[in-house]
Amino acid sequence: MSDSGFPERHESEFLAERFESHRGHLRAVAYRMLGSLAEADDAVQEAWLKLSRADASRVDNLGGWLTTVVGRVCLDMLRSRRTRGEEPLEERPGVRMPEPVLSPVSGVDPEQEALLADSVGLALLVVLEQLAPAERLAFVLHDLFAVPYEEIAPIVGRTPAASRQLASRARRRVQGGAPAPDPDLARQRAVVDAFLAAARDGDFDALVAVLDPDVVARSEGGVTAGAVAVASGASGFAHLARIAQPALVNGAAGVVVVAEGRPVGVLAFTVVHGRIAVIDILNDPERLAGLDVTVLDQ
Questions:
Q1: DSSP state of 273
Q2: Could you give the CA distance from residue 32 to residue 53 in angstroms, rounded to a whole number?
Q3: What burial letters (b/e) apply to 267-280, b meaning 16+ CB within 10 Å?
Q4: Among residues of the chain, what percentage have pLDDT more than 70?
Q5: What is the rounded CA–CA span in Å between residue 75 and residue 1?
Q6: Beta strands per DSSP E along the chain
Q7: Host H or E run for residue 223
Q8: Can you tell me whether residue 260 is helix, strand or coil?
Q9: What is the pTM of this model?
Q10: Is the model's pLDDT at 236 over the cut of 90?
Q11: pLDDT tens for each residue of 97-113
């Protein structure tokens, strides 16, 4: 039967089935690394190509092998961003916003649940976007997916001890810029609704009351800090607040502003102790055009 190629096809099909069983996990790793669903899918596809060319019989732990392969592919993709003439991060007025995952208020679907496991809110991804590529990989693989430093080290070309230091630096940045949100979605929604109501009414005092004193509002256009400054900016949001519709943004309470069937803004909120601690805003027209807002009607 070897001349017919049947054994080879059988082996290939078996390998493809094994790969598919890991696809959801690999996509989750790549999304945290890249902040882009399309790029995450590209990275996962590249991992499949590498696996199909490799001698899989020599791989003892396929899941671990694929995770490190995806990590290496994502690291290369992150580094290539810096060689394509993109504006250096430190010269930007704001932050690079990741691609949000939008869901209706009724909840996320099973595929999204796997993608957004471990509370991968937009605030976390925004902070990850500000890390150096090696720091991001060390933090994502170790802190979010429990990959040992001994396996991370060869990917970043460092010792295990140096890899630990990379993750530690990243961890401090994350803790400072992505506070743990209130886990109760209903409480989150009540706070966000109060913010929207105050913005629609132009009620400055009510806006300040719902914001944490040290609130930070971030977008690619700039960063605003402090309740008074953020409330002042939100006061000019009244016309858009009137057409904003509730949504889940990366599994947390947020809003999407849709005009004439097209998204013109996405706001993700991090609610801590009953007040808004972080507002992450995507308002870049080109990137908004790629979002599918029809999912909000489901």
A1: T
A2: 26
A3: bbbbbbeebbbbbb
A4: 91
A5: 42
A6: 102-103, 211-219, 222-225, 244-249, 252-259, 262-272, 275-282
A7: strand 222-225
A8: coil
A9: 0.87
A10: no
A11: 899 999 988 887 777 77
